[in-house]
């Protein structure tokens, strides 16, 4: 067993010991909102946004971008599970600011000897605020997104833990 796995299982066993009433939580998020954010290890949405189990959906990917797959999850979140407000949260010092599509596709070609990387839009972030505006706008204008869902955009500052508004909901 890897060291990671054994520490995960230890922590999980303690968590399950006090799981209690969480067994009765409903599937739809009780606070009817979803957060789309980056997978960055420094961001913990439960902590920075004060979430408990059952409260909200959190969709994460590299950059917190409104990719087709993030949209898939958000559409399920609203149309099947009833969320009515979404928050797009990118952050300072994001790994997605450190390379371009061309660069990563070239690097992957060297590593794996395939051009597959060139077929992927890596959704890199050349301009932090612009990426938030782009994603909020893509979601607001998407044909599968109901016009009455309130959508706003923020940047989480990894130096202060604060959320900074970029697009008002
Ligand atoms: Zn990031």
Description:
The chain has a 5-stranded mixed β-sheet, covered by helices on one side. It has 5 helices and 5 strands. The protein has helices at residues 3-17, 45-48, 68-79, 101-112, 128-141, and strands at 33-38, 56-61, 85-91, 150-156, 163-167. By secondary structure, it is α/β, with parallel strands linked by helices. Bound molecules: zinc ion. Zinc ion binds next to loops. Zinc ion is lined by residues 38, 40, 63, 91, 94-96.
Main attributes of the structure:
5 strands; binds zinc ion; 169 residues; 5-stranded mixed beta sheet; alpha/beta; Beta-carbonic Anhydrase, Chain A; globular
Named CATH architecture? 3-Layer(aba) Sandwich
CATH-defined topology: Beta-carbonic Anhydrase, Chain A
Name the CATH homologous superfamily.
Carbonic anhydrase
List segments where confidence is low: pLDDT < 50 over at least 5 consecutive residues. Answer: none
Alpha-carbon Rg, integer: 18 Å
Sheet with the most strands, sense and barrel status: 5 strands, mixed
């Amino acid at each position: 067993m890897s060291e990671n796995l054994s520490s995960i299982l230890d922590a999980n066993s303690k968590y399950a010991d006090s799981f209690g009433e969480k067994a009765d939580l409903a599937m739809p998020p009780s606070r009817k909102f979803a957060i789309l954010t980056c997978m960055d290890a420094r961001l913990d949405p439960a902590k920075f946004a004060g979430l408990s189990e059952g409260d909200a959906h959190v969709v994460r990917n590299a950059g917190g971008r409104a990719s087709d797959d993030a949209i898939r999850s958000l559409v399920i979140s609203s149309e099947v599970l009833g969320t009515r407000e979404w928050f797009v949260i990118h952050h300072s010092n994001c790994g997605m600011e450190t390379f371009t599509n061309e660069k990563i596709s070239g690097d992957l070609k060297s590593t794996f000897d395939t051009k597959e990387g060139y077929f992927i839009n890596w959704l890199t972030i050349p301009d932090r605020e612009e990426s938030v505006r782009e994603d909020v706008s893509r979601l607001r204008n998407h044909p599968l997104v109901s016009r009455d869902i309130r959508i706003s955009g923020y940047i989480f500052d990894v130096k202060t833990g604060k959320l900074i508004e970029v697009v008002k909901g």
